[in-house]
Specification:
Strand content: 5-15%
Largest sheet: 5 strands, mixed
Number of domains: 2
Order of helices and strands: HHHHEHHEEHEEEHE
Shape: rod-shaped
Structural class: alpha+beta
CATH architecture of the largest domain: 2-Layer Sandwich
Number of helices: 8
Distance between the termini: 62 Å
CATH superfamily of the largest domain: Reverse transcriptase/Diguanylate cyclase domain
Number of strands: 7
CATH topology of the largest domain: Alpha-Beta Plaits
């Protein structure tokens, strides 16, 4: 953007504007002209007298000549003052023009900076959001989990990580196409997200896997009940035109601090519990049981 490069190097060519000096000179010219007029009037009065002496007439003529010289000089001075005044006005007009231009450039830079901030926030948001479901992505979940663990340790809270997998999702893609598969994932994401509390998080881990972070956990049975409700909600029929599907999920749970105190350990143990659920008869499995 041109305004960005223009502002740092902008230098106003401000000259010393001496309007006071110009105006003072103008007043001096007025005084000189007044004096010359007075002398001319005095000389004319003498020259009009019929009985004026020769000496008086010579003096009057000399005054008249001096007055004419004074008037001529005043005219020249006035011309120079007018030129200088015009130059000073031109300088001021130039300064005002440069200031107006600088204001415009500064406004452009301000708008560019605001746009850059918006673009930066949008880029950050995109980097932390899953493009298909609109849920926080894996990177966003990692950040939230690490922050949650810091708070849990500081406040002596419990914390739960739920690892969720859509069962037989490959069959959905193979039998109905990837467009239907994407719509199933979006439906699962919305149903999971509708069940969590403010402050908790559902994230798409990748493929057909989701993770959920529950903060301030007081009782593992509360987590098990919520996970059971999630499974039932996702299992409700979903219709796409003439196609009706029933989606099943498997959920593995790891609790802090019982099942691990580090983020990677909790995720690994929740994943292990999830595979245990997929291979067994229970949809929800707690790692420590």
């Amino acid at each position: 953007m041109s305004a960005k490069s223009k502002i740092p190097g902008t230098k106003l060519a401000i000259k010393s504007v001496s309007l006071n000096g110009v105006l003072k000179k103008n007043e001096e010219i007025k005084i000189d002209v007044g004096r010359a007029a007075s002398e001319l009037a005095s000389a004319n009065d003498v020259l009009k007298q019929e009985n004026a002496s020769l000496q008086a007439m010579k003096v009057a003529l000399t005054q008249n000549a001096d007055a004419e010289i004074m008037v001529a000089k005043a005219a020249d001075d006035l011309k120079r003052v007018n030129i200088k005044l015009a130059n000073e006005i031109a300088v001021r007009v130039g300064i005002e023009s440069e200031l107006d231009s600088m204001k415009t450039d500064l406004a452009t830079v301000r708008d560019d900076l605001l746009q850059a901030q918006v673009t930066g926030r949008q880029a950050q948001q995109l980097a932390l959001t899953d493009t298909l479901t609109g849920l926080p992505n894996r990177a966003s979940f990692d950040l939230a989990l690490h922050q949650g663990l810091v708070q849990a340790k500081r406040q002596s809270w419990g914390l739960a990580v739920l690892f969720i997998d859509v069962d037989k999702f490959k069959d959905i893609n193979d039998n109905h196409g990837h467009d239907v598969g994407d719509r199933v994932l979006l439906t699962v994401a919305n149903r999971l997200n509708s069940f969590i509390r403010e402050g908790d998080m559902v994230s798409r881990w990748g493929g057909d896997e989701f993770v959920c972070l529950l903060l301030e956990v007081k009782d593992k049975n509360d987590v098990l009940r919520l996970a059971g409700k999630l499974a039932l909600r996702v299992a409700e029929a979903v219709t796409f035109g003439a196609l009706t599907l029933h989606t099943k999920i498997s959920i593995g749970i790891a609790l802090y601090p019982a099942d691990g105190e580090a983020a990677d350990v909790l995720i690994k143990n929740a994943d292990t519990a999830m595979y245990k659920a997929k291979s067994g008869t229970q949809q929800v499995v707690l790692f420590s049981t």
